[in-house]
Fold this protein.
Amino acid sequence: MINASNSKFSIAVIGLGYVGLPLAVEFGKKYQVVGFDINPTRIKSLHQKKDDTLQISEQEINAATGLIFSDNLEAIKDCTIYIVTVPTPVDNNKLPDLTPLLNASQMIGKLLKKGDTVIYESTVYPGCTEEDCVPVLEKASGLVFNTDFYCGYSPERINPGDKINILVKIKKVTSGSTPQIADLVDNLYASIITAGTHKASSIKIAEASKSIENAQRDINISFVNELALIFDKMGIDTQEVLDAAATKWNFLPFKPGLVGGHCIGVDPYYLAYKAKKLGHNPQVILSGREVNDQMSAFVANKLKRLLQLKGLDKTGANILLLGATFKENCPDIRNSKVFDIYNQLIEMGYYVKLFDPFANAQDVAETHNIQLITALDKYDGIILTVAHDFFKSLDYDQLKASSESVLFDTKSFLDKKIVTARL
């Protein structure tokens, strides 16, 4: 059995995105680590000490003296601990897409040796590690689970764009397939996480804890989104209502808005899928998802009504969307609902432009066939869709085609005095 205090063992981190890279860097400060990714372009950038996700600086990469990057399987074949941090998206039917996870398991299985441990960080439903991933590992390796190799689960809690709540400052849930492996996994993470760890009693408990974290946020946001839909019909400013209610000591300060990204807009479907497989209809979870998925259409239709009130609702009206990413101050466009708004406005006959100083223009073009603009003009309607700090510095009077132009703030981010409406 490997002891986490033994710095001679080596770690492979599989997947170097928002989750994997910070993890590889922190472990690389204390252990021998190979950061592995199947994307050669990503590896090339990291060799140049450049992180396109803007999570990790060149100085931080340099500080990880035990870390190397590779897209070559030979580089990880001698590792003893494999940590999987690949995406777990949903498909077009909102069902879990385990393809990246199972492909990673298949790849690792071919390299597994007796005594090795595989730790999963990807968000899944309870039971996925042992019921879906382990059989793939066993078949590919010819080894026996909990006899020849072991597994752990430690759900990621990375918050893209957040420079305060970084990896080491967020308490880490850990678990293992045996009591001894649970100790190993817990000690390993405790060696880099200054906020401490919480050792769950089983892998399923750890998986379940992750699946409800984002489902809870999704449901809370869906409540205030539904309030926004109701108050819009009443002609009431939702943010003013929330400000008033927030004076009560135990009122939860959630805001309405678009719910996208790789976590909140996706993870609840994993728990719902498992619940349905067990014969339970998860009404609250799915109703919250339904409300949140309506918000893109609501924003597009709200802009149309605002333009109508100003006499600007015409074919070819110039519309500007400020922000393409799923959240502020980061380049992550995964599952961003801004693109839904863009497409609906195009279908309404408007001339729509999209501007975002953080988003990668090539990613947007390849993923959504939309060209980001680099220079701003004048517009009949402007929607602030993402609260990038950069957008506070814009001169909105200069962006308006006329005094009647509409400025719709979906984030309650700008001074209320300058906006036409807020979400």
In short: Residues 29 and 64 are 4 Å apart (CA to CA).
